[in-house]
TrEMBL record:
This is Methyltransferase domain-containing protein. Gene3D superfamilies: Vaccinia Virus protein VP39. The keyword Cytoplasm does not apply. The keyword Secreted does not apply. PANTHER family: CYCLOPROPANE-FATTY-ACYL-PHOSPHOLIPID SYNTHASE, FATTY ACID C-METHYL TRANSFERASE. It comes from Algicella marina.
Amino acid sequence: MSSGAEGSHGALMDAVYRRQRHIYDITRKYYLLGRDRLIRELAPPPGGLVLEVACGTGRNLIKVARTYPDCRLAGFDISAEMLETARANIARAGLSDRITVAEGDATNFQCASLFGRDADRIILSYCLSMIPDWEAALHSSIHQGEGRHSVHVVDFGAGSGLPGSFNRGLQAWLAKFHVSPRADLHEALESAAAKPGRSLDYTALYRDYAQYGVLRLS
């Protein structure tokens, strides 16, 4: 993504979330399904670094910090508005000493450059469906450090098992928030897992309402 595209996407996300960020966590908990399963199965090593791409309000980072008190956490987002809320939430939770956030572009980042070290676990939670060049964001997350990390993804599915009228309404509603479920995500993860030493655990959740994958790179 060019710097111009990066800037325009950041401006769009700021516009979308300038007001929504204040009620984001209250409203999203009812339909961003699978996030807590991802956190339960994250299992970072003691002293490890968990990185969340497009961390939003910091909700997941705070929950990971409380679930795994021996790890450190970092997150970045392209929206300055969301980061303002994230920093406030992290401070309110008393976790500013363990969680660091910064502004960054998911399609082109280096964890070591942003936070001084490579990540052991990378989270992509309901963000690929909002990133225009989502393949580049997935590629950037995979190609970090020495390949000793794992990438944990949860996002909207195509809804293939849902009633047709419900799914059509859901897709139309998501489009109002610039959300596009990635029908090719499973294929992209399988392609990445095909290299030697890698493995993938993938499942469709709730009749393909959501999709969940863990790509292990070592």
